[in-house]
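Problem 12. The chain below contains 219 residues. Write out its predicted structure in token notation.
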Amino acid sequence: MKALVFAILILSLFPLAQAGEIEGSVIGIIRFERSTDADKLLTPEALKGSGWQKTFTHFQRVIVFEKVSIRINDTRDVPLSDDGRFYFSVEPGLQKIEVLNPHGQVIAVRELVTDEQTLRLPIVLTNDLEKHACCSAAAENKETQTDAPPCRDYNGNLGDCINYSSGWRKYTNFILSDCDYAMGAGYCWNELMPGVSCVHLGYTNCGYLIGHTSAHHCH
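Solution.
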């Protein structure tokens, strides 16, 4: 009897850890800074139906991912809901949250410490095209239609289908390109992680990822 009372006392002093909850979302933002020339080309009518919009400082597309998933502590995968949200319970402690693209490649990592409370974890992936377009390293200094680079980040139907290495047309040509569609489906974001480049991804170009021809083409 004394042993039982002692055990109850110990449990009251050191209660069992309660599971915590994490709820969050994953969205992507592709953007580039506005310019006078881009403003003239990218009117509201031209952008209609593209998913792109003009903000005070940028042209941008906000993507609610549907096909990416969440991996918790290297063991458990949680799919996203249709609105890009996730929800799961965890034991208190350090949590490793990885975002995986449809090929299972890691595109983002977050770490946080949880207790028995509900934590909210909005994950926002941002691709500033001035810093890194899709496979931009492989496409450097190629400005002809015939000598086409591996990546199709220039063949959108609002531009001239020329792969500029810099300047405002480089970014307006990205809109509705193969790479724009691929990033909308959750691909290519892992290229933004340190130490990862186009040649490590195991596919020819982003046209292949979305069912388009891998050969040079214009929309």
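Discussion. The beta strands are 20-33, 52-54, 58-64, 69-72, 76-79, 85-90, 93-100, 106-114, 118-128. Students who got a different answer should revisit the alignment rule from Section 12.3.
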